[in-house]
């Protein structure tokens, strides 16, 4: 009798284990594929320059500082610059809405107060001619993000900035800066 109960217990545990194992989630095939927007974003965020990486990093740092960013981290050996700036995020529409809600209900509604705008820049040298190392291009990719917080200090939004105009203006200024650096003006 004891053997019978013991075997039933073992069989029950084995069957239950198989049932649990079959419920394990699998990774969908789409999860590891880039979206169509990611290629579009990468093209928006990347440009190629006919200059060396060191010159491009120096020009990039100057442009970012001219745009009001403070450089938080810079690793020239890796071709990386990370910077940020604080800006006001107050919206007149939100404030008016909060006042109306307060007047009607007496409840305080927090509104967006400030935003942290971050920029990350990465460079990568590309040797055009394997035999002649002096002929090279440098790819530069910059991304902008913003983190918005409200009057209670809570983060209300985290988002990438993907406006073509912002990237075009940055790369136009970078082109001018690279030209000035190359001609030591």
Layout: helices, strands, pairs:
Layout: H1 2-22, H2 36-45, E1 46-49, H3 53-66, E2 70-75, E3 80-88, H4 92-105, E4 112-127, E5 136-150, E6 155-161, H5 164-182
Antiparallel strand pairs: 1-5, 2-3, 3-4, 4-5, 5-6
Helix pairs in contact: 3-5
Question: Main traits of this protein?
Answer:
185 residues, alpha+beta, six-stranded antiparallel sheet, 6 strands, 42% helix, flat
Descriptive account of the structure:
- The chain has 185 residues and is α+β, with helices and mostly antiparallel strands.
- The chain has one domain (29-182): TATA-Binding Protein (2-Layer Sandwich).
- The chain is 42% helix and 31% strand.
- The relative contact order is 0.15.
| Computed structural class | alpha+beta
Percent helix among the residues?
Answer: 40-55%
Order of helices and strands, N to C? Answer: HHEHEEHEEEH
Query: How many domains, as an integer?
Result: 1
| CATH architecture call | 2-Layer Sandwich
Quaternary form: single chain
Strand element count: 6
How would you sum up the global shape? flat
Per DSSP, what share of the residues sits in E-state strands of 2 or more residues? 25-35%
Low-pLDDT stretches: none
- C-alpha Rg, in Å? 27 Å
Which CATH class? Alpha Beta
Number of helices: 5
Major sheet characteristics: 6 strands, antiparallel
CATH fold call: TATA-Binding Protein
Mean model confidence by pLDDT: 83
